Amino acid sequence: MLFGSQCVCLCLSQFLLSRSLRNPAVPAFTAQYSRRHRRLTLLDHLYLAAALGHSRGLDFRGGSMGPRWKGKGSAGKSLGDPMSKIVFQLQSSILESEAQTLLSGSNVFLAAEPQQADLLNRACFGVRISTFEKDKHWFQLGMEVAFYLSHSLKCLNIPNKDKCLMTHQQLWQYMKSRKPNFPDFYNAYSHLRV
C-alpha cells in the first residue's frame, strides 16, 4: 500500500516516463528528476505534479492526456492567438521599454505598462499587484519566472540592492541561496514553458 509522497512520486514518475517515450527532449529531465526526487517533500511533489498537469492543459481523468479547453470557443481562440506569439510580443515589449524591476527577498517586482500588463496576464507570468498608479502596473514574479524571463527570454534585467545589474550567474547563485531547491523547480518550470 502506498502512502502520501510515495503515491505522488509514483504517479509523477509514471507521467514523466510516459512523456519521455513521446518526446526525446524529456529523458534528461526525467533522469535528473528521478535522481533527486528523494530530496523533495510531499508539498514539492504536489507542486510539480500540479505544474506538470495544469500548465500544459492536460486532463488526467480516465487515463486521457489530451488537451483540455475551458469554455466554448477556447480551442479556436487558442489556435488563433498562440502562446508563442503572445510571449514574443511580451519579450519585444519588455526589451523595447527597458522595464523597471526590483529584487526583494524571494520575489522580483516588475513595473509594466498597460499593454505589457495585458501580455503578462495572457502569458501567465507573475501576479498583478493592486496599486493606485494608472499608467504603471506592478507584477510580482516568483524566482523561477524571473529567472526564465532574464535567462531564457533575455528580456529582463534585474538589479541587486546596490542598483547594479546582476549577471545570470549572480542571479542563479542568489536564487539558490534564497531557495535551496530552486534548480529543481526552475528545471521543471522551464521545461513546461517550452
TrEMBL record:
One of its GO terms (molecular function) is tRNA-intron lyase activity. Residues 1-18 form the signal peptide. InterPro entries: tRNA_intron_Endonuc_N, tRNA_splic. Residues 100-172 form the tRNA intron endonuclease N-terminal domain. Pfam families: tRNA_int_endo_N. Transmembrane segments: none annotated. One of its GO terms (cellular component) is cytoplasm. One of its GO terms (biological process) is tRNA-type intron splice site recognition and cleavage. Keywords: Signal. This is tRNA intron endonuclease N-terminal domain-containing protein. It comes from Ficus carica. The lineage of its organism: Eukaryota, Viridiplantae, Streptophyta, Embryophyta, Tracheophyta.
